[in-house]
Amino acid sequence: MLVRSLAALTFASLVLGQQVGTNTAEKHPSMPIQVCTKSGSCTKESTSVVLDSNWRWAHVTSGYTNCYTGNEWNATACPDGKTCAKNCAIDGADYAKTYGITTPSSGALKLQFVTKNDNGANVGSRVYLMASDTKYRMFNLLNKEFTFDVDVSKLPCGLNGAVYFSEMDEDGGMSKYSTNRAGAKYGTGYCDSQCPTDIKFINGEANVEGWGGSANDQNSGSGKYGSCCAEMDIWEANLDAAAYTPHPCKVNGPTRCEGADCGNGDDRYSGVCDKDGCDFNSFRMGDQSFYGTQMTVDTSKPFTIVTQFITTDGTDNGKLKQINRFYVQNGKTIPNSVVQIDGIDPVNHIDDNFCAQQKSVFGDNNYFKTIGGMTQMGNQLKKMVLVLSVWDDHAVAMNWLDSNYPTDGDASTPGIARGRCDSAAGDPKTVEAAHPDASVIYSNIKLGALNSTFKAT
Fold first, then answer.
1. Could you tell me if 160 and 426 are in contact, meaning their C-beta atoms sit under 8 angstroms apart?
2. pTM passes above 0.85
């Protein structure tokens, strides 16, 4: 059971709004990518990144009074969702000083975990790739490969450096909702397969109704509504563990949910999205010496991650059949680890058969199949937005990624052990105090025809 807590991705007195303020000019940090052809020829695209609007300062349009402070809404400015959207504006971001988001070199992005600033400290961040100043860069991943370099050498247990795709709207929902005046330029319209209820504005309205502050996060809370869409996790990782996971949904594109459709608690397998997904974590799949410091993939040094989306007919419109994974380090191509669990075929990729066997052996609900499996995931890979983030986990301390989960489970039981980390290491109070200088660097992003973005050795 994979769980992502978005509650950890917060900043004191900052919140998503829908109008646009003018106190700080919005300037997107440059992060060019390359698009490659079968011949291996690659062309540079002048892309950039934008900060998610959930991090931004929101204030009343007539002044500087916060619309949201700590984990509470301003009752005067935000008596209901529609009124709040009219009353509140979000501003531009000082990416480096306030959020610790920098570009150390062309095509590279560094995300600092904790950044002290004039307002206190920012914890975590999430950004999206932009094609222009007002539109996200859209991806069709079918019959393609997606490649990037990563440095997780300063990302310890309990943290997650994530690279993934979400089925968001190109303009951040601006054209759909007249109350959303900010759009993609200010990072609006987020959704994912966890149907997060801590998103403060959904469909151009504030998530005020039913809002309650988090019991263990003074800067976050949750409302009546969630924001659902399909998600393809290319990379969720730290120094000691890594996973890649498709998460299909019944719905297409950003969808506001409520009640059972959000899939929370006992309704987990009634929701519109597959929250568990079908994960491939080398440690969990039996090879405990493949990924980590001084292992086959040595996480103390940078390396390249290659993910291929194979279709049944070899075309960009075919049905998704298989997701392959390779690594490249020190000039050497490293195939993904092979499954070493009794009852699961010794494969090193994700397909429907792998997912069915894994769910059966681990005793998990195969909601992935119920939702539509690889075919449905493929249908939703045609219109994706690239997300890059770093976060800690206020829900289950990242144990689902890098430790035993459930924490009271027997590590010898297949599927329980996901990494070598101590289950207490990811407690947000612990990791934020012990590792404020943690960071991740993403660079050299490429998209292209199969076998065009890296040189096999």
1. no
2. yes
Whether 26 sits among the annotated catalytic residues: the reply is no
Give the whole-number percent of the chain exceeding pLDDT 70: 95
Cβ burial 177-216 (10 Å sphere, 16+ → b, else e)? bebbbbbbbbbbbbbbbbbbbbbbbbbbbbbbeebeebee
The secondary structure of 129-154, three-state, reads EECCCCCECEECCCCEEEEEEEECCC
3-state SS, residue 287: coil
| Residue of 26, 167, 231, 432 marked active site | 231
Q: Which pLDDT band, with edges at 50, 70 and 90, does 16 fall under?
A: very low
* pLDDT value, residue 58: 85
How many of the other CB atoms lie within 10 Å of CB of 354? 21
Residue 14 predicted with pLDDT over 50: no
Active site (annotated) includes residue 231: yes
Length of the chain measured in residues? 457
Among 327, 324, 240, 232, smallest CA distance to 278 is for 232
Statement: 28-55+94-449 belongs to CATH 1.20.140.10:
no
Q: Are 138 and 130 in contact (CB under 8 A)?
A: no
Instruction: Say which of 167, 236, 258, 432 is annotated catalytic.
Output: 236
Can you tell me whether residue 32 is helix, strand or coil?
coil
pLDDT in tens, 109-157: 999 999 999 888 999 999 999 999 999 999 999 999 999 999 999 999 9
What are the tens digits of pLDDT across the range 61-86?
A: 988 899 998 899 999 999 999 999 99
- E strands, 86-213, in order: 88-90, 101-102, 108-112, 114-117, 120-123, 125-130, 138-139, 144-151, 159-166, 201-202, 205-206, 212-213
Provide the 10 A C-beta neighbour count for residue 108: 17
Sole residue written with tokens 């990416």: 95
For the chain, domain boundaries: 28-55+94-449
Q: Which two tokens stand for residue 200?
A: 């403060």
In the block, which residue shows the tokens 């949904």?
Answer: 249
